Structure formats: structure tokens, C-alpha cells
Amino acid sequence: MTTEKFWRTLDEYENFEEFQKSLQDEFRPGTVTQPGVLDRREFLSLMSASLALAGLTSCAPSVPEKIVPYVRAPEEIVPGKPLFFATAFPLGGYGLGILAESHMGRPTKIEGNPDHPASLGATDAFAQASVLSLYDPDRSKAITEGGSITTWDAFITTLAMELEPKRLNKGEGLRILTETVTSPTLASQLKQILEQFPSARWHQYEPVNSDSARTASQMAFGRHVDARYHFDKADVILSLDADFLLTMPGHVRHAREFTSRRRAKPGENGMNRLYVVESTPSTTGAVADHRRAARPSEIYQIASQIHEAATSDPWIDALIRDLQTSRGKSIVIAGPQQPPEVHLIVQGLNEKLGNVGQTVEYIEPVEPNAVDQIESLRELVRDMQAGAVDSLVIVGGNPVYTAPVDLEFSKGLANVRLRAHLSLYEDETSEMCHWHVPETHFLESWGDIRSDDGTTTIMQPLINPLYAGKSAYEVLSSVLGQPTRTTYEILREEWGKGQNKEDFEKAWRKSVHDGVVKEQGSRNANVRFREAPKSEIRNANSEFEIVFRPDPTVFDGRFANNGWLQELPKPLSKLVWDNAALVSPASAERLGVINNDVIEIKSEGRAIRAPVWISPGHADNCVTLFLGYGRTRGGTLASNRGYNAYSLRTSTSPWIAQNAEVRKSGERYTLVSTQEHHSMENRGLVRRASVTEYAERPDFVEVEAETPPRSLTLYPEYPPEENAWGMAIDLSTCIGCNACVVACQAENNIPVVGKIEAGRSREMHWLRIDRYYQGDLHAPEMFFQPVMCMHCEKAPCEPVCPVAATTHSNEGLNEMTYNRCVGTRYCSNNCPYKVRRFNFFDFHSNEGPSMALLYNPDVTVRSRGVMEKCTYCVQRINHARIDAKKEDRAIRDGEVVTACQAACPADAIVFGNIADAESRVSKIKAEPRNYGLLTDLNTRPRTTYLGKLTNPNPEVKKA
Amino acid sequence: MAQIFHRSTNTLSRVSIFGAVFIVAALATVVSVVIRSPYFTEARVVRVQPVPFSHKHHVSGIGIDCRYCHTSVEESNFAGIPPTKTCMNCHSQVWADSPTLEPVRASFREDRSLEWTRVNDLPDFVYFDHSIHVRRGVSCTTCHGPVDQMPMTWRENTLFMEWCLQCHRHPERYLNVRGQHIESPRKLTNCSVCHR
């Protein structure tokens, strides 16, 4: 297994020797900024001045702090103790149940809600980062009319004057445009609006929607139904371009269910097997047992070959046999970006394989009014252009930026006499509208929302609106002529309908407390599948195809001003702060481009320029463009960054465009990918085996020349203690989703450094996820490996610190004491895992006052010149220890949960006491596939990994 | 060529080299004395408060328990500063017209918090937890001094790390234990116990 070559970048793959040599350099080229030339005199005068000034600062008397107690203390708040409130994080109309942590009224951190079926206690990177958006200083702060600040009263007066005459003509010309609505209350309000104004229309549009699946279900079942998948019950899963682990609604639950079947003990095989056919490498593709890159048009061909069971391709043949032997225990799933034809085949396959009712359930639509959203928008634009719309209320969303380019939404919008827009930021749409109303963040307002399986959550606010924002409920209520009603009243009235007061009060309190409304899931839909008339899809003859994808970190652009998500490395390319056009190595060669070359992509007469990033495993002759960048407004971080893929995206081909022309433009651009940073020099870090190999050789993770005897050290052994903290990370279940990275950032007050500093390898993430490729450049296997401080028992960083700022605790923590650190960086140089991060600047200083509310009060905010790194969430350990000591007991197993572990949807990270043989982490570490990184250095890391297991089909020959 | 320096320079240089040791030592002594002086540490210096609250009167005079006002001392890291409501529990009846207490009544009337000046202020990189100290037998007066004798509140101790460590290194000297287990200093002197 040591002979396998794992590689991370193309440089490493192609130029192995040279790359190795470059590792010897202390600094990567470009990371050292040239100091200005300084002569001796200047140097001395500067030094003496700074010494004198440094001395002076210590003479300043300390400023007395104030303590400001309550006048009347609220009942629940104990100063210093956080409270948790159940609510839901909305994304694309669907809710993820969460528990929001509040410190003295400030929401600081998001955790999953274990009682919520879409969360099961875990979260994703978007939910983790949502708390940053709350305090974002770029959020819109005032109601504006034509760009000048005005009041809510002025807005509702204008709206009332506009709507008054419309009551006579039944609301002719009134239109409401919303994003996907699953909220029962919003739907009821919209229904009332349509009753008051029968000629008015309600349109829904969201750039990332499920139109294709809808159309297919209409064709197959005669009506809309939603599908719910049970990945825990499936032995064989075939994904046709479905990234069900990262971007599809329900992905957190999917990840938990899917990974529950990715563990195995030697000799037993309860593992599922995942086949993925996809164009763009995704996290789902990366964890597949068999992955095949295919152009979008080929995916349809492959799907129909599987359906007809007619193929000469041995790969597909083996897949078909595998599916057939797992009847009722398999899942075929198509991505929302696939055309309805593929969805139809998938529905037919699930029907044929007997999966419906077993692993696939059809449920009544979660949305109260599911529509074809692109059609809905097309209709709106047509009417706007015809001059049939005179007042348009846009509730959330940013259609000027996200609408398909061929509809010419903004041109139509200009014809509307009164345009009002509610949104979190002043964005491209706000600019085009007369009125802009700042929207409340979901942590600031009441609300209700449903998750992808239909579970309803009543969302509760944790803080008063920071900027006098208004909720969608209040804006719609103003349309209904009741502008003074609060969101709370609106919601209570809706939920109290037809219930007596006492029962309702009880049910309401319980629902709000639990974060789940009892018995509110979607009912199973009683539908019968009928073979739809076969529709042939146009054959693939085009030169280049374009694949559009929501960005894995900024999604459709809504998170573009969120620094945590901008700096979050994309799961596979590890790019930060930019989107790139992904192409395969073969296509890059054909185009004559390398990374950072700018290409011009032409489709249907429109063209954009985008920097290239070569993505091994990408399908040939197609290019992937990510949505969400190229914004012109919407905050300082969002604007003027990357290219705008929406400007090529049309309503007829929103996800896949054929016949694109791609050529090299000759320009260059600088993309920053963090995967070249912090190298551990390719020393057998990822170890893997198939389940059959594992049965034959359970100790496959053992490689030669490893783990010196315990006696081989000059340092004394530590005496045994009651608690010895350790962590185990299962590479089999890690899906590389990044939830842990953002959770760590939120928990530990980790700053954002920006693109330039990230380009100098100065990103501050304590936890990074290394991505490795293995094998063929064109169809590599992909591996994820989260790496943070290993808390070595014999830590190389400790003896080199001249000021004892990094020390060892008796419980085995490698501690970092910031107030002692003088910034020599010796520790970082001596760390073989490259997990220490240095504050080159006071990154927190220019964040603005609202961001100070975000900090976790239990963790020091570090300043310039200080080293930092993963602490195993020592603040959580200390709280658990104090609680345990107060009760005179030992810390229980599972009482300390680190932030990364809590967020992980795959349950891949387990933390606990390794001195207790009965603890969960000890049992996991006792598995034969447990190994440590670089143990030949005798560092004795406390964090260890479980070797990756795969479950390949023996019938599929290795290419 | 004439000599540049006068002969006396030899003596001068010898004296200054020899003297440097003492000058440096003297300076170091002065600095270490100054930084431990009340001028610098503000220990035992009375703070001006919006209301001249006397712990002496309330504690030894009337006999109110510390926890009547500092309610969260046994459950949280922060002992808690009483809300105005706590003051008004008595002072809506007792000394209800006293001009000294006008700020308290104003606070209650106008729903505006009183702003007390912090007396015991630890640096932001230190995480101190009252509840565990109280639970483990550190009495309030061990750190805060004879609060019941303070007409106006002052900080009794420097709150320097060397002061904390006196107890963390030798807990047996300071704890008010009743047959309880005393934690080993090895565990009490981990950096992460206080810094994180």
C-alpha cells in the first residue's frame, strides 16, 4: 500500500521530483514579501523609537471596565451560561432544524437539533456560517426609496395607495415574486392575497430548484410528488449526477444515513456500494466505490442503457447485475440538474427494482404550491414586458442577478411602475427597485418552514432585528392591508386556526421548544407509476458542453458576502475566494491551457471569460461553471469577485448547455487553492483497502518502518491520568463536506484573512481537509482527510518554544497559551503536521463593531504576532470538567463533544477519553484499521485515523 | 598624534562598566516594586461607584448573605451583579426617599441599567470560574478579602498570575475543606485551566 502514489495537485503528479525539491525551500515562492531597503542609521533610529514607544505603552493606566446589570433580570438567563433555542436554518425554502447558542442574548453558534429528522443533530457548512451573516456589517440597514433613506410608514403608505384602486379592479397588475415557499403561514397569506385580489398572481423563482424532478413526476404520476430516500436501507446506490451528500435538500440526513453503512469490522460486510456517474467531480463522486465521468449528454445514454439493460459496456453490465441482485434494497437517484428525461428513467428504474415503498418513498409535495419555477418567472417577465404588471413586490431573492439571461428580467422589470424588494442585502435587484426593505435574518424573526421530508419547524427569534428589518410575513401582511401586525401575531393566528385556546397554547409551546411540530411530516403519496411516452434526448455531438452548478460554498450567490464561506476551500478544487471554470486534464490539453489561464466560453451568442482550473476526474469536452460569483452589488466581499455564470444560463437549458465554444483568451488570472499549502510531503498519509482486502489483512494500515518502540525517547513518560483526551477520525465515512471546518471557525473565533493573505498560505483554519488523488490522472480516486492538531504525546513543537507558550497538560492536551507567545514560529516550523497558524496581522481589528457580538466569549480573540492551533475545544472540556467536579463524578463518555464532531453529518469524528477502555473513542481506536500520521517520528499523536474502506464490485475490472 | 581621550576616561569607563550591573539591577528592582505597587495594580484602591454602596453595612451590619445579590456564584463562571430589582426589593420600602439612592430609583423608573465600575478585573485572556472555586472550598474572602469590612469596595489582591498560583500550587494552604478531595497541583497548573 505504500507503493501507491497519492497526489494532491497536478504539479505533484507530473513533476514529482521537482515538487519534492521545492518542498525543501523554507518558503514557497511568493510568500515572502521583500522588505524595503533599510540602512543602518534608519534601522537604529526606528528601533530606538519603537523601544521607547513600546516602553511607554505599559505606563498607560488601565481603563476601568463597567459592569452593566439588568434592571429586571429575565428568568432563564444565568450570566456566563449559554442558552440554546430550537429553530431552523432556511436554504432554498427548506429548513434544517438547529439549536442556536445564545450568550446573554447574542446568538454565537449553530448546532444541529437531534430531534429534527433533517438534522439528526448535525449541520452543514452553510448553517454553521449563517450566524456570521447575522452580524455582517454589509447587511442593508435602512428602508430606501430611490436610494434615499425613508421609513416603514412611508413604505406602507405608498403600498396602500397603490393597492387601494386595485381592490376595484381585482388586483389587475399586482404581482408577488417569492423564492421557494414551504412555510404554511406564508402560503396562507399568499392565498389570502389572491382571494383579495383575484387577478393578482404569485410567482416563485429560485435559481437552484427542482423543476426537472417536478416535470418528471408530472409525467410519471400525473401530479407533483416529492421523493424521500432512505439511504440507510440501501445496499446498492446509483447516483446519476446527484450530489445528494452536499447540495440537494436533505443532504445532512442523507449523509448520516449513507455513512451509517460505510463502516465494517474485518470479515463482515454490511457496507453499501455507491456508483456515481457525473460530469463534475463532487463530494458524492469522491466517496463512490465506482465513479464514472460522463458528459451531461452521455448521462442520459447511460441511464437509458441501464433501463433497457442493453449494453456492451462491462462497467454498466456489472452495475445492472448488482442492482438486480439488490431488488428492493437499492436506490437510483438523479440530480436536480439532470433533465426530466433522466428523472423519468430513474423513477422507472426504482419502480422496476421494487425500491418504491422500500428505499424510495413518494410523499405529498412539501411545498404548498409547487410550480415549475422557470415557467413561473417566464410568465412574469412576459407580462412585465407587455406592460401588464404595474406593481411588483419581490419577497426575498435576487432575480435581477439570478434570472436566466434570455428572459431579460431586468428589461421587463424596468416597465413596472412600482417595484419593491425585500432582502438581506442591497443587491442587484434592490438597485433596480424603487423601494428596498431590509429583511430580517432568520435568527431575528419568527417564522415557520418545512424540511424536505415535510417536517415543520416554528422558527423563533434569538435577537431583536439589528437593523429594523422586516420579515416576509410583515411585508405580505402589508399587502393584505394589515401593516401593523407583527410576525408573531401572524404566525400565532395561522397556527391557532380551528383549535381551542388551551390546547393551542400547549401545542405551541411544545413545538417552539422542540423545534419540530408534532405530526406534521408529509403524508405518503398514493401514486401509480405509468410508463411515460418515451422522449428521445438530442444526441451529443456538440464540441463542448457547459455544466452549471451551484457553488459548494457560496451556493447560488446568496452567501457571497459571507467571509467564512468565501474562504472555505471548495471540497475538491480547494479554491478560495473565486470560482473557476473546471475542465478535465485532457480537455485542458486540447485547449492548450493550464491552471490560471483565462478561457472564453461562448454559448448562444453570449460570452464570458473565466479562469481555468484543471480538475482530474472531470468529464472530457465539457466545462463546469459555478454560480454565485461575479456579483456587482451586495456587499464588499460579494462584489467584483469571479465570473458571473448566470450571464450564460438560459431558461431552456438552465443546467446543461450544448454547443458551447471554448477558446483560450491569452489572459492570466490568479486563483488561490489551499491544497498546495501545509504539505506533509507525501508520506503515506492516506491508507485504504477494500472490504475483501480488509478481511484478509485486517492490519492493512500497518506499513513498514513505523512506530518506534515507546522506550525510544529522551523525554520522561507522563504519569497515567483519569482523563486522556483523544480523537479518532474515520476516513471511510468522511465525505469532505466542510461542515467541521466552519464549525471550528465559529466556535474558536478564527479570523478570515482574505484572498491575498490566503495566497501566501496564511489562512487561519485550525482544521483543514486535505484532498488526495490516487491513480490515473483522468479517472483518479479521491480521498478526504481532515487534519488538525494531533495533540502529540511527544510533541515536537513543545521543546522548541523559548517562552514555554506551548506546553503539555496532564490530560494530554498540547496547550497553546496566547498571552505568553512571542511569535518566534519555531513551533510551527517544527510541526510535522503543519497545523499551527500564525497571526501575521491583527485580522480581527478591521471587522467592524457588529462582528464583536459574534465572538464566542469562552475563547480568547487572538491578536497579531500570536501562534494558534486546534485546542480540542478545551473550553468545552473545561466546562464539562467543572460540571463533573461540581457533582463529584467523573466526566461521562460523550459529555465533551468538540465543535467539529458536533457538526459532522457523517459521524466521522469521535472524541473522548482514551484512558477509559469502555469509551466510544477507545473502542474505535482498538479497531485494526486505526493508524496515526507520521508515527515513525515518534510523536505519538492522540488523533488517529481509521483507514478508508471501499466496497468495490469484484465484477468491475479496474481500469 | 595626540590622545583623543583624557586619562580620566579610563576610570570613567571602568566605573560605568562596573556600575552598569548595579544600575541594571537597581532598575529591575524598581520596576518589580512599581508593578506590584497599588499605583500599578490598583489593589486596595477604592473605586468610585455611581452609588456609594457599602458592603460593610449590608453584610456585617444587616447580615445579608453574599448570594442574595451575587446569585450565580455557585452555578456560573460569573458571580453576577444584582439587577436593580434586587436593590429595590428592600429600597422601595427602606430609605425609599434617600437622595443617595436616587440613581437606583431612577434606574428602576426609567428601565436604564446602573453602570458599576468593575473592581476585580481579570485580563481578557484569563477564564476564571467562580462556581468551581466556591464548590471546592475557596471562600469568598480568600480572594476578595474582608468584604464585610469594606465601606467602599476595593480589590484586595493584585490578581497577578503569581498570586493565583500561590493557591494553585499549594491548594491545601487556602482551601476551606470539609473532608473533600484536594486536586493535585499537577492538574491545577495546566495552562489551559485558565488560558484558552
Describe the structure.
The complex is a heterodimer of chains A (959) and B (196). Chain A has 959 residues and is α/β, with parallel strands linked by helices. Chain A folds into 5 domains: 6-22 and 677-708 and 720-950, Alpha-Beta Plaits, CATH 3.30.70; 83-135, N-terminal domain of TfIIb, CATH 2.20.25; 144-208 and 369-514, Rossmann fold; 226-363, Dimethylsulfoxide Reductase, domain 2 (3-Layer(aba) Sandwich), CATH 3.40.228.10; 544-675, Barwin-like endoglucanases (Beta Barrel), CATH 2.40.40.20. Chain A contains 29 helices and 40 strands. A 7-stranded mixed beta sheet of chain A has the order 7-6-18-17-16-8-9, sandwiched between helices. Chain A has a 6-stranded mixed beta sheet with strand order 23-25-24-27-21-26. The two termini of chain A are 18 Å apart. The model of chain A has no long low-confidence stretch (mean pLDDT 89). Chain B is mainly α and 196 residues long. Chain B has 2 domains: 36-81 and 118-196, no CATH class; 82-115, no CATH class. Chain B is 43% helix and 1% strand. Chain B has 10 helices and 1 strand; from the N terminus they run ααααααβαααα. The radius of gyration of chain B is 25 Å and the shape is elongated. The relative contact order of chain B is 0.12. The A-B interface holds A 62, 64-73, 78-81, 721, 807, 809-811, 813, 815, 817-820, 858-861, 871, 874-875, 877-878, 882, 885-886 and B 42, 47, 72, 75-78, 80-85, 107-108, 111-118, 121, 123-125, 127, 129, 131-132, 135-136, 186-187, 190-193, 195-196. β2 (66-67) of chain A pairs antiparallel with β1 (116-117) of chain B, so a sheet runs across the interface.
